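A further point concerns the way the authors explain their paired sequence and structure data. For illustration, here is how one protein appears when written out as sequence plus structure tokens:
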Amino acid sequence: MKKFPIALQVYSVRDDLEKDFYGTLKKVKELGYDGVEFAGLYGNAPADIRAWCAELELVPISAHVPFVDMMENPDLLADYAAIGCKYVAIPYLTEEYRPGAEKFDEVIAGAKVLGEKAKALGMQLLYHNHDFEFLKVDGKYALDILYDTVPADLLATELDTCWVNVGGEDPAGYVRKYSGRAPLVHLKDFVGSKAENMYALIGIDNGGATADAKAFEFRPVGYGKQDWYGILNASEDAGAEWVVVEQDQPSIDRTPLQCAELSVNYLRTLI
């Protein structure tokens, strides 16, 4: 199996990052990660972050930047280009922009605009899915409509293997479906199945409702129900360059950094 470089989506350790950005990056490197994917800069200057990553020999591979923020200010992408990110991803859609809602067409049109902007900056735009893109529109998944409508040179995939599974599809099969268009693959483990209010676990406020961990819970990679051998083989077949660990909430009585350590240690037994 290919020895993939492994990045951490640092949203996984966001509380640590907010308290000590540099120190948390240093810990992530010490855990054995090769790179990071950002989700906000916490007020730090792009030049400083680039310098810290270079000092720590930690590759700033990509960033998640909200769709609405990028559309309102496309120059935001330049900050991530200045850091050295090769990729920038649309990470999540609020309800009015989701498939079946009034503004989903704006996402498709906007992805073309943002894809061109990213390309001009030497970056590639990605789309990071959840489960709601597995709504069928005229018999076809909205996620596939998005990728079929926006040219591959403007929009590549960042398939989140947890949410593909929750959406009812086989993660390995879906990664292979987008061979040649899947430079980054999100590795996320879980137990349980699709449940009411599970998005509370990713920090989405649903009127104060809480998620039921007995029905659905995120886990470190290798500690849940995902077939990682199959997913990693599919990632290799699809031509992925990096795999990215993400755990939206810690579990099994571990801290976020401890969960991140369990994930990378498990992956090192496979790749």
Summary: The chain has one domain: 6-268. The first helix runs from residue 14 to 19. The first strand starts at residue 6 and ends at 9. DSSP finds eleven helices and twelve strands in the chain.
